Amino acid sequence: MESTMTYEQVYQNYSGRIMSYIRPRINNPTDAEDLHSIIFTKVFEKFSSFDQTKASVSTWIYTIARNTLIDFFRTRKIHEELGDDDIVEEDAFQGILDEETLDELASALEKLPQRERDLIILHYYHNMQLKEIALKLHMSYSNCKLVHNKALMKLRQYLN
Question: Which domains can be identified in the chain, with CATH numbers?
Answer without folding.
Answer: 7-75 (1.10.1740), 86-159 (1.10.10.10)
